[in-house]
Design a protein that fits this description.
alpha/beta; Rossmann fold; Argininosuccinate synthetase, chain A, domain 2; 2 domains; five-stranded parallel β-sheet; 13 helices; 14 strands; 20% strand
């Protein structure tokens, strides 16, 4: 059968997106191109090809975007020290803009008239995907099956899958599993027992961090080198952005670093409880703030702290490509060329302790802070300084 129209679907190879794939074929009478962005999530390429081909898909595209994701999305975000509601390092939020950008690029390349995603009607991801789609392809149609179809429950999905001969994994036949999203930067887990905030998170849901009890009983020393505001090396070895984050994920995960249990305020107005694991990113956040403390002036650092909450909120809400986010990014990166040096850290039982900061920057003056008498700091000016500020009381 020759289709007249094409749709590019963000496809994982799992049950939900396989159902969406079949539903799109039937309800839109279109050829579906399956697109998978490899941003460091657990990915089974054989399963993706097998499941898509079984449903008649001829064009299946899997792109390795790990280095692009870390270099052009994660690192700029870390330079801004973005933390949503003071805790969340935005691991899911920062991934969606890149996927949306590439999905639209694929749609344009193959002259598809529409794109589609598998985000549910209650989540934030539908907003993040669709704002990205609109930015890069305002004339391309967006199809959101979860907001259109009449499949309203897990049992409805299972019935549909059986009817259409779609393979159903054993763990999908009963109650819905935890909702898991992962990439090279983080893992998030939501649903089931976590929905009641009084319930503690069971240990078995954690995928990339040890519990404090199982973490090593001795300290781990790690050093991170920075150039122009971005990390470039771990323990003296220069690494690509993707490999650097993978290395830190392994080191931090073993030491129980990077766990967050958060009840967050979603963009669409719902409160949601999630468990996040961002081991390497947590180290980078601490190390970056440490190197900035000896390379940037007070005014620049404080301005960055002032804009951070809004910057984080924009990313969380899906406004990565907005004029406001670009404007704030310029503030964040104004003096990034000065942020160079080495930070050494001690990791132990979920804790990160700064051991040393090394830089050639002149922002930190040993002479001015020394308790020894020196002529570089005029103490007689202090009284005038205090008197000036008294007037503001």
């Amino acid at each position: 059968m020759k289709f007249k129209k094409r749709i590019v679907l963000a496809y994982s190879g799992g049950l939900d997106t396989s159902i969406i794939l079949k539903w799109l074929q039937e309800n839109y009478n279109a050829e579906v191109i399956c697109y998978t962005a490899d941003i460091g999530q657990k990915i089974d390429k054989i399963k993706i090809y097998k499941n898509a081909k079984k449903l008649g898909v001829k064009k299946i595209i899997i792109e390795d975007l790990k280095n692009i994701f870390v270099k052009d999305y994660v690192f700029p975000m870390l330079r801004g020290h973005a933390m949503y509601e003071g805790v969340y390092l935005l691991g899911t939020s920062i991934a969606r803009p890149l996927i949306a950008k590439r999905q639209i690029a694929i749609a344009k390349k193959f002259k598809a008239y529409a794109v589609s995603h598998g985000s549910t009607g209650k989540g934030n991801d539908q907003v993040r995907f669709e704002l990205g789609y609109y930015y890069f392809g305002p004339k391309i149609k967006i199809i959101a099956p979860w907001r259109e179809w009449d499949l309203s429950s897990r049992s409805d999905l299972i019935k549909y899958a059986r009817k259409k001969n779609i393979t159903i994994p054993k763990d999908k036949k009963g109650s819905p599993p935890f909702s898991i999203d992962d990439n090279i930067f983080h893992t998030s887990t939501e649903g089931k027992v976590l929905e009641n905030p009084k319930n503690p998170a069971p240990e078995y849901i954690f995928q990339r961090t040890n519990s404090l009890e199982k973490s090593p009983n001795k300290q781990t020393i790690v050093s991170v080198g920075f150039k122009n505001g971005d990390p470039i090396s771990v323990n003296g070895k220069k690494l690509s952005p993707g490999k650097l984050l993978e290395k830190l994920n392994n080191i931090a995960g073993k030491n129980g670093i990077g766990r967050v249990d958060l009840v967050e305020n979603r963009f669409i107005g719902i409160k949601s409880r999630g468990i996040y694991e961002t081991p390497g990113g947590t180290i980078l956040m601490v190390a970056h703030r440490a190197i900035e403390s000896v390379t940037l002036d007070k005014k620049t650092m404080h301005k960055k702290d002032q804009v951070m909450p809004r910057y984080a909120e924009l990313i969380y809400n899906g406004y990565w490509y907005s004029k406001e986010r670009y404007k704030i990014q310029k503030i964040v990166d104004l003096k990034k060329n000065k942020v160079n040096g080495l930070v050494k850290l001690k990791l132990y039982k979920g804790n990160i302790t700064i051991i040393s900061r090394q830089t050639k920057s002149s922002a930190y003056s040993m002479k001015k802070v020394s308790f020894e008498e020196n002529k570089t700091f005029n103490k007689s000016n202090v009284e005038r300084f205090i008197n000036f500020h008294k007037k503001k009381l």
